[in-house]
Write a structure and sequence with these properties.
This protein is α+β, with helices and mostly antiparallel strands and 786 residues long. It is built from 34 helices and 10 strands. The longest helix has 21 residues. Keywords: Cytoplasmic vesicle, Golgi apparatus, Membrane, Protein transport, Transport. This is AP-1 complex subunit gamma.
Length: 786
Amino acid sequence: MVVTSLKLQDLIEEIRGAKTQAQEREVIQRECAHIRASFRDGDPAQRHRQLAKLLYVHMLGYPAHFGQMECLKLIASPRFTDKRVGYLGAMLLLDERHDAHLLITNSIKNDLSQGFQPVQGLALCTLSTVGSADMCRDLVPEVEKLLLQPSPYVRKKAILTAVHMIRKAPELSSVFLPPCTQLLQEHHHGILLTTMTLITELCERSPAALRHFRKVVPQLVQILRTLVTTGYSAEHSIAGVSDPFLQVQILRLLRILGRSHEESSEAMNDLLAQVATNTDTSCNAGSAILFETVLTIMDIRSAAGLRVLAVNILGRFLLNSDKNIRYVALTSLLRLVQSDHGSVQRHRPTVVECLQETDASLSRRALELSLALVNSSNVRAMIRELQAFLESCPPDLRADCASGILLAAERFAPSKRWHIDTILHVLTTAGTHVRDDAVANLIQLIGGARELHAYSVCRLYSALANDISQQPLVQVAAWCIGEFGDLLLEGNCEETEPLQVEEEEVLALLEKVLQSHLSLPATRAYALTALMKLSTRFRGDNNRIRQVVSIYGSCVDVELQQRAVEYNTLFRKYDHMRAAILERMPLVERGGTRVEEEEKESNKAAQLSEAAAPVPAEPQASKLLDLLHLLDGSSGEAPCPPPQDPPPGGTLVHLLDLPCAPAPPAAIPDCKAFERDGVQLNLSFIRPPETPALLLITVTTTNSSGGDVTHFTCQAAVPKSLQLQLQAPSGDTVPARSSLPITQLFRILNPNKAPLRLKLRLTYHHLGQSVQETFEVNNLPVETWQ
């Protein structure tokens, strides 16, 4: 039984009627076999019908590559029905990856040259879809002629094809400059809209075109003013707004032309004010025009009053009932907060109200903007609002909110006590969501505020007694109780309510932390060390502390076991030195970058080793030096001279010895590697004394210009005899005129001390342009490799 081929409509019905995927595949495979047989027979009358069915099969996701050559045959056919299906098939089945698409170049050229408009439209659509750079260069004369054809139908498609040509072959931009100037005289809506798109593409890709079209800014201003005042045509109006699509496109073009150009910006200031005040905001079309107006005002060199008006428009958007408009307003205000901080501050209450939005994307944007609005004058009020939001915010926002509050408090804290209270509130509310360095920062802050030691330990003890589930809070509280436990017992802190605490209560609380299943190993280590320090702070019997410490001598956790064994040794063999070893920790100064901290640590170690060199020969001092050896745990340094006359009776493993570092090397001078339009890249160098073959390069990128530097990446290369490791940068954005640079660390290993050659590639977006620079740093100091 011979099964005849189906018509397109019957094929669609049968595929839709398939109850399983296997039935669908069976129908398609059977019909594809008929289509192949028809192609082999070469029946020209059936070719376009068979290809139409094959295109439907392709749209369902099944392979249809065997129909590519049939598309070329249909395109070459003189019949319009064949050309229509052939061009559609070419757009669906061909692309630049297949060489077959080049075979239709002559057919497209012939069809563009004939005067039948539907065929010209088909050829232009196909060229703008699958045209490669070579095809665009070959067919640019035909498209240029069609730009000035009397038919609007053909001209619209020719203009859009020119946009595709410029994207594929930017060197063709100069060909389309004269026609664009003539097309601006047109009054047809479609031609004007596509012309604006073409000019925008030209200006973004060619500096010469940008200079050329800045001369027509008055003409563009007049076109837009006509749209705003008298309207264009009723058929292109939406909700009473005259041709919003054309208005938006003109505003985008004006934004590009006025950027960093005083004369062009001056010519459009009055018009932008008119658009901003006369546009109806009751519909989405009017809101879209106002939003583009705001973006244009902020990008050009507009007057100060106009910028305030733009921010006020965004403030009105925040009150809109449409969530999408509120989201756009929050995102735009976040972009403007660096350049127009004062204007955005006026809308701070409305922004804070947006924190309570149920939509997660809105509340996240409101949180980012609220954190950006914090400054020294409003830090108390804003942190209070953010703390209230932290208590009820969704879990996915809690980490960002907590980190933002900590950063704002560190930057704008009016007093140390307020700073400590703020961090304590964050740790109490969302301690598990804070950054890893929150514990170290708070310990540093409390240690440096001598007058607040009693106040801090009382507050932390009360917080720990109420909740031991927040691990960062427990760690800070354990450290503080261990350091200042004697102040806790005195209870003479005048800034808080009197707190009467007994020694047994404090010890019981720390034991509770040690035994809690919620405690992390690091938290238990804090608590164990706190108990050990309290053995010198409290006046009572230390038997309870010794019992707890001895229990952890056989703990499964290696860190806790090591601490417990060392502390037991202190009790048993070196009890007479326990008070000196467990005295309060000195204040450690905070450094900047990690490299600077490493350098400071090595310098301090060298000074300590020099100071510790002339050690007396008494057994007591020798024991103290050996025990200090246990409290450091450094390795890889030069060995210190052994203590003289060690006493009999057992020695400890030197786990905590003070490192004996060599003298710090001479500083290597910094060098400037790159500078362009306010973007500067500086290199600073450090060679660690313990590994002379290692060079640490800190790359610091600053921006003193008026535009943000975004999507910044820095890549490096060195000769094969050297080993290079690039660490992750601190960010990819440098705000305009900002003191917040991007830093990145390079680690270069040069065991043979070969002359250092460094090649850098920088990629970033700045002032509306994409910048890529590749260069070799020629002014590296010789100290970097000798």
